[in-house]
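Much of the work behind modern protein science is quiet bookkeeping, done one molecule at a time. The protein below has been through that process, and both of its lines are reproduced in full.


***
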Amino acid sequence: MKKIITSIIICLTSYFAMAQEKTAASLKEADLTRFKIMIAQDGAGLENILHKDLVYVHSSGTKDDKTSYIQSIVSKKTIYHKIDVIELTQRIYGNIGINNGIVHVVNLKDGVELPANKLTFTDVYVFENGRWQMVSWQSTKLPVQ
């Protein structure tokens, strides 16, 4: 039942993420929606919210493109269990939106929570086809307090 409800929520948030206005509020919502989609391991949702030219640089220094990033989540190589937003600010320059923030990320491995990572990040979105699409992510680990 929990999986059905989660799927319905993800579908609805994906729908609303598709029909957006170019505002700071919709840019913020795009990031929050993306975090939910990552946790739900929703390949279709990721396909929709990630730009075809995505460059995703993890806090470990490894790099993914759109295809490899989606595959890592759908295949459960990477399992995002919780993403708690601590800070999130937006700036918009024409069709480019930039989010800066801090998140606590908890991953799962073999069904066990790994220690939380506190990350500071910058991500860049492009407003195309009536919606925000993330084109770049870069994060750095911060000390967990």
